[in-house]
TrEMBL record:
InterPro entries linked to this entry: HAD-like_sf, HAD-SF_hydro_IIB, HAD_sf, OTSB-like, Trehalose_PPase
Alphabetized PANTHER family for the sequence: TREHALOSE 6-PHOSPHATE PHOSPHATASE, TREHALOSE-PHOSPHATE PHOSPHATASE 6-RELATED
CDD domains on file: HAD_TPP
Signal peptide: none
Its EC number(s): 3.1.3.12
Enzyme class: hydrolase
This protein's UniProt keywords: Hydrolase, Stress response
Keyword Metal-binding assigned: no
Function: Removes the phosphate from trehalose 6-phosphate to produce free trehalose. Trehalose accumulation in plant may improve abiotic stress tolerance.
Protein name per the record: Trehalose 6-phosphate phosphatase
Family according to the record: Belongs to the trehalose phosphatase family.
Catalytic activity: alpha,alpha-trehalose 6-phosphate + H2O = alpha,alpha-trehalose + phosphate
A Gene Ontology biological process term: trehalose biosynthetic process
Amino acid sequence: MVRHPSALSKFEQIVAASKGKKIVMFLDYDGTLSPIVDDPDSAFMSDTMRRAVRSVAKPFPTAIVSGRCRDKVFEFVKLAELYYAGSHGMDIKGPAKASRHNKAKAKGVLFQPASEFLPMIEQVHDSLIEKTKCIPGAKVENNKFCVSVHFRCVDEKSWNTLAEIVKAELKEYPKLKLTQGRMVFEIRPTIKWDKGKALEFLLESLGFADCTNVLPVYIGDDRTDEDAFKVLRKRGQGIGILVSKYPKDTNASYSLQEPAEVMDFLLRLVEWERLSRARPKW
């Protein structure tokens, strides 16, 4: 398995690829901006990370792309100038606060391609809360357009039992599908929409649909982020950065080990942009 080069040690190579291009930042939340924790409701980002994200969003349009519901991610991040794509990109909203990147169209963005599934998701959530009560440590989370069943705190001997409960529930709902992330089962609509599609939609909303003068940078740690990494590879344009301490099969080009390194990378990007602006243009 390939160990991808560090985005910190190859920083100069990354910024060299941005010459003459507009950088647009895409950031996953859990495991990228905040540490992975046992209780998903306690996945708080640090104030220093918040300052780093706020700093990077000043020169570069920035979006948070998460499997969590959009409102919950916003409560964690608390930055109104960002774009937010929750529920794996099925709930997208433009910034609540104006910034110099926001064109009128982008500021008013609200896109929910799976709205018809909301009652179904609600039913599955309520049903699984009851059916998983027999599994100590299981936590069922309603992420608006998807249901997440966390098993990080479940005894390994019960993982298969929990998986069977979730699969049995899905048999009642052919329009929903099961995917798996880091210690979580996720029930999502079968529509062809994911974090990669969300990335493309946001680039279009920002006016960069078919532009060659844009460099999307996507940082994420989960399987679901691979959809975005694949889009960047297919475009032949953009940089995928996997957050992982261990080598993994990935479509990303670079890696960072943990949220602390993500913060270092963001701050270096901000400093590089500041120095680039200050440098005289002969």
